Recover the amino acids of this structure.
């Protein structure tokens, strides 16, 4: 019995498009992170980036449950005293809706160089159009 290890040249990457309209933010991010890591493939190896490219459209129409629109905040700090800034989910969806999905997915990826490579394969767009028609993306059913 030999364990099959994928070589770098044997990796085949597909392109998937996901429509975020009406999808729950957390469940959508979980499915996207799974595809970016490559865990949906039979040849999954934790130490290699085997994942596929994911294009997310209609990010502005993502859904959240409960009172998260008012209660969920995104924090950042300028590293100066008193430099902490908090932006609510509702404000973030109005100004930069793609960042909401990017932030949720990034938190589900590994916190190392491998995770950074996986994150680069995520393309998020606020509206229904995307410039990746040449890659002939398949629809990812959630």
């Amino acid at each position: 019995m030999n364990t099959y290890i994928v070589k770098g040249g044997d990796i085949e990457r597909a392109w998937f498009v996901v429509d975020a309209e009406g999808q729950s933010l957390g469940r959508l991010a979980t499915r996207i992170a799974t595809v970016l890591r490559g865990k949906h493939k039979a040849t999954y190896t934790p130490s290699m980036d085997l994942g596929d490219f994911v294009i997310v459209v209609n990010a502005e129409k993502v859904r959240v449950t409960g009172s998260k629109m008012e209660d969920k905040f995104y924090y950042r700090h300028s590293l100066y005293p008193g430099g902490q800034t908090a932006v609510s989910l509702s404000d973030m969806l109005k100004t930069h809706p793609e960042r909401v999905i990017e932030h949720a997915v990034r938190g589900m990826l590994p916190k190392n160089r491998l995770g950074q490579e996986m994150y680069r394969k995520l393309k998020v767009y606020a509206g229904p159009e995307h410039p990746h028609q040449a890659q002939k993306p398949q629809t990812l059913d959630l």
Remarks:
- The helical segments are 25-37, 68-71, 89-95, 97-106, 113-119.
- The two ends are 35 Å apart (CA to CA).
- The chain has a mean pLDDT of 95.
- The first strand starts at residue 15 and ends at 19.
